[in-house]
Structures are given as structure tokens and as C-alpha cells.
Amino acid sequence: MSEETKEKDEQQEDTVSRREYDALNDKYVRLYADFENSRKLWEKQKLECLQFGSFRILQDFASVLDDIEAALGSLNETQHPEYAKGLKMVYAKIKDVLTKEGLQPIVAEGVAFDPHVHEALMFEERADVPEHTVTVVIQQGYKYGDKVLRPARVKVSRMPAEQASKEV
Amino acid sequence: MARSIGIDLGTSNSAAAVMEGDRPVIIPSAEGTTVGGGKAFPSYVAFTKDGQLLVGEPARRQAAINPEGTVSGFKRKMGTSEKYKIYGKEYTPQQLSGFILQKIKRDAEAYLGDTVEEVVITCPAYFNDNQRQATKDAGEIAGLKVMRIVNEPTAACLAYGLGKEEHEQKILVFDLGGGTLDVTIMEMAQGVFEVKSTSGDTQLGGRDMDEALMNYIFDEFKREQGIDLRKDPMAVQRVREAAEKAKIELSSTITTDINLPFVTADQSGPKHLVMHITRAKLEELVMPIVARTRQSIEQSLKDARLKPADVHRIIMVGGPTRMPVVQRFLEELVGKKIERGVDPMESVALGAAIQSGIIKGDVKDVLLLDVTPLSLGIETLGGVFTKMIERNTTIPARKSQVYSTAEDNQPAVTIRVLQGERQMANDNVELGRFDLVDIPPAPRGMPKIEVTFDIDANGIVHVSAKDQGTGKEQSIRITAPNKLSDADIDKMVKNAEQFAEEDKRRKELAETKNQADTLVYSSEKALKDYGDKVGAGDRDAIQNKINELKEALKGDDVNRIKNVMEELAKVSQKLGEEMYKAQQAAGAAQQPGAEQPGKQQQAEAEKAREGEVIDAEFKE
Question: What is the mean pLDDT of residues B211-240?
Fold first, then answer.
């Protein structure tokens, strides 16, 4: 083998190993980037999981608040003033705990209907309020941060039929 | 870099998913949450009287008070010339679907923090070319590049990991949604899916099941209390929520309770709704609805010219198929187990995302890293197996731990490298062993021997032991640690579970014996050094107990050993006091009592430092 061909061979070998090195390095860098990205995702999901935990508990508690509200609604206060007082205290205490956890009641009664936080179940003909005003809250709604735990289920005003036809 | 996503554009609900690494994940809507979100985009579009556009959940919430401005179900009109007239303006089904896709694009971009340009959208298998083109147009209207339209059943199969098999397989895809049933028979071979037949019912779904359960609750309450709750909107709302919860719970439990205190009231006072519902009851209620699916299944089989026995796999799609009664019905009718492991609510969107990943080339060429099938470790004092690398650790992996000697002036240690899940060394497989010799004379527990396990990407295990005092090192290389077949590995893991209790007892015995042995050693040493400080009576009492403990150590009675250990500790108290006094007298400068723990802490610190070094190497 002449000196020249030997040198050529070595050069070729160099190019091959260089290419292999580049390919491997590329794979490694990509894998490392994947790893970094996964790590960021874990962090994000860990946070979400924590938030979701509160979200779910608060969602379950919404129906417990319904129960207490129903109890308060059916209680004869003049007949059992101390029971009423006590139950109201229980209600206030639970609400206080849940508020600290991030529960926010959705304001509904008397405001303009907003499908982002309210869910309309039925109409009520009313001439004394602007159209599409929430007249009755059938079920209280709640938010957690900027997310709706449960929309407020509401009754919405509609102009009485004869008045509406007059306008047209 | 713009991302590509998969979209399940449904009749009543839509969903979207994206590839995160090699796994598809569901994208939540702006209104929902990630975990347990399911199909998050109701397929509703609405215009308010003042011209505001609402899409998805907000549109659904105002449907009752704005029926003339709200549309849904327009997927059924895709590819037809039908137009929807809303407040004097006309919209094609493509445009309305476009609004849904636009909302999904917007929410996906907010979630991913990146732009979304390319998508895969799914459509029913029975969609013709016109309907497919309309679906594609809807994507373009939303400003998306539609890479492909994929059949919903095909996407579901992809989500379940099908498509890689060589052999031809017949698949039955059972898609039961909120209001529609689609049954598709497909033939699949080497990643190619061919639709053989489709059948379905556009008026059958989960909503009918919810109604059946609610009606049962209302009827029962009326029978018991004489009050019809259907007339009270607040009560209806509470029952609806409770029924939904009960239905979900009964998919995993046999019974559940519905408790709605103060649900209503009459002259006699408040009334509570208390109901015990069994899974059997729920199944009895929904069975008539489930049974109606039989006709579509039989029709699709007939059209494909197949017998139930010809079906290789059953794929379930849609929320209602989570109910055990639906799954059992299918399994009995076809005579095969259904495929499991993917949420049927999410499968179509997940499959669409996988398809988008395949097209973009994200999915292929994933570097597959192996894991260790069984734990690796060494034998330590008393024949206990101490794990160094836990099973299912992704390799390459490396771990070091410092051990010491068990006896005074111990000249050598034997490192037995073991593989398995049992707690005692001898129950596991020995991969190899070696001795580290010439350890300089020292009291037990003093020499620091660092044992390092290193598995490279090929599964070759290097084990080394180094005497940190002398720097002397010995190692072994095990080239084929996994000579075991999958069945062997399975057996070993099962054995470990089976013998867990017994192993625990044996390990406890070994550890108690180790403690007792240490106590004998330290008591004898203390007696020798400080025995003259206490009375002859105390000395004899201690010596007697030491002898008794030595005797107990010959047997295997854990309780006896523990009792004698306690007694010995009690009689040695006086000796301990004397030792303490002597040490205090020796002065604060030397503090011989603090010497050993101090060194141990140092060793810990060294270990931590070494851990950092390894990390740093890895980073570069």
C-alpha cells in the first residue's frame, strides 16, 4: 500500500467517524432537549395536579353548600331562632374555609345574563327589568380562579309578549 | 415552532389532543381543566341579538333562552347544500364547524403557548367525498392547514396502539356517544385500515341513559313522598347532578347513595331524598337502551359478511361505553374481550394526534431506552438483599453506596451481586461475586467501602468495590444479566409478591439479629472499659444478660431476642451513666463519644458531593 492511498483511507475513515460523531451528537442534543422539555412539562403538570385537587374538592363541596342552603331555606326562623342561628353559623364557617381555598361565588341575581358564567334554564316574562337580566338564581354558581367550577343556573327575563310585539 | 394537533370534530362534543414527546395528551378547553376534562368542546355555535358570537360551552349555556340564535348538530349536514339562517344571515355547516375549529385552535394555542397551524381532523367512516371535503373546508375557514382527514374508528384504533401487527385483523369499533351510535367493522393489516361496513342509530346514546336514571329517581320519590320533583327547577338541577355522579360511581362500585337533604317541603315540613342505588338497578334501567345497539352490531357484521367469531378485537369509543353493562353486552354478543387501557371519551382525539405526529415525523425514530426488568443489589449482613438499582429503572444508570465491615479487624469483604425482588439474598439469583481483600485492621463499622453499580445502555453491569481508606479497588463485569425470559421475570416478580409476608418476617429476624449482635459487641466493650466503675452486682447482671442474648441469638425467636435486648439495655443503664460521666471528665476537646457519628456525617456529605459530580459529568 502506497503512502498516498493510506493517507486517503485515513481521510475517509476520519470523514466517516466525523459523520458518526455528528449523528450521535445530534441524537444526544435532541434527547437532552426532550428531557429538558419533559422536565418543564412535569413541573407544569405537578402544579396543575395540585390545582385540580382543589378544583375537584371544591366542585364536590358545591353540592354540600346546596344542601345547607336548602336546609336554611326550609327552616322556620321564628319557630326555631336558635337552630336557624346555629345553622347559619355552620354555613358561614364552611363558606369561609372554602373561600380561603379559592372558592368564589358567581354573582348572578339582578345582573345581565352572561353565558360565560351563567347557564339559562328558563324564561320569565318581566316588564320591570331589561331583557336578559338574571331574575332568579336556581342554583348558585362558583368559580375557582378564572375557571368556572359550576355555572350559576338561572332564570332569565324576557319582555312580555304584547310589549315585544309593540316594539317590532 | 408551530405545533400540529389532532381534532375529534363531534356531533355534540369535540376534543383535541397533541403529541408531548411520544405520547398524545388531551388539550383542555379554556373553560375546563386538563385532568379528567374529556371532550371539552360542546359543538354549539350561537349569535346573540346584539351580534356577539359564542362558541362551545358558553353557547350551550344560553341555548334555552336564545333558541333562534343557537345551532348544534350541524355535523349531520356537512357536505349538503343546507344553510342555517341566524338573525337574517346564512351560514353553511362548514362555516359553523369552522367556528368550533377556530375556538379549538385558540384554546390549544393558549394551552401550548405556541401557534397551531397544521391539524388532523376525524370524521365518521361513512362520510362520502363531499362530506370529507366539507370537513377539510371547515379547517381552512378556521385558518388551519388540514394535513389529513382520518376516520374516527381508525383514530380510535391508533390510540389503542393497533396498526403495527403483521397479520390481518378484523376490528369492531363500537362508538356510543351522547346521542349517536356508530358501529364500524374494519380490516387492518400492516398499518392499513380498510372499512368493511358501517351501521348505526342517530337517536341512541348516553343522554337516554341519564334520562332513564333521573326518571327512576323522580318516580321513586313521588311513590314514597307523593311529591313530583320535576316541577321544582332547583330540585331537578340537584337531582341531575346527583344522578350524573351516581352513574359515574357505579362504573367502579357496586352500590352508591344519593343524599339530597331538604330537597323539597310540604305542609308537614322538609323532605329529604335518600336513595340507595345498586349497579344492578342502574343496569336494569339502561338495559333497554343498551339492547337497542344489538341491531346495529348485527347489521354491520352481516354487511361485512362476518360472524361474531371472526372479529379479532373490539374497540370502545364514547363516554357511555365506560359503563360495565355496555362492555359486558358487547363481550357477550361478540364472544371476545374488549380492548382496555384508553379512555374511550378521548380515544379518537388521541388517535388523531398520533396520526399528526406520524405525518410530521415526530413519532418515528424515538430513541427507545431499556429498563432493568429486575432489581439489582448486594448481600449485606444477615443474608439480607440490599437493592442498589430498583426494577424498572431506565438505563444507563449508576448508583453508589458506602458500606462497612461487620467484625473487628475484618480483612476482606465478599460482594455478592444479586438480581431479584425477594428480601433475602439467597432467594434471588446470584450474577457473580468477588472479594475485596487487604482491608487494614480496624474496628467493625469503621472501614468505608464504596460499592458502585453501573449499567450501560446495553445492559452490561459493572460492579466495583473501593476501600476509601486505601484506595484499593476490585470490580466485576457481568455481560448478560438478563438471561431470563419474560416468563421467568414475571415469575420472580410474582414470587416476591407471594412471599412478601414471609420475606418480611425473615428480614426482620435478620435485622433484629444484627442489632442484637451490635448490642452484644458494644456492651462487652463498655463492660471492659468502664466495668470497674460500677458495682460487682451490676457487672454480673450485665454479663448474665449478654450471655443470655448470645444464647438467644443461636435461635430464631425474634420476640425472645427483642426481649433480652431490652433487658440488657435496662441493666446497662448504670454503665451508660458512668461512661457518660467519664467522657465528660475527659473534656470537651476530645469528645470521643461524638467521634463516630461525626465521621458518618462526613461520609454522608461525601456521598452527596459525589452524587453532584456524577450529575455534572452527565450534563456536559
Answer: 93
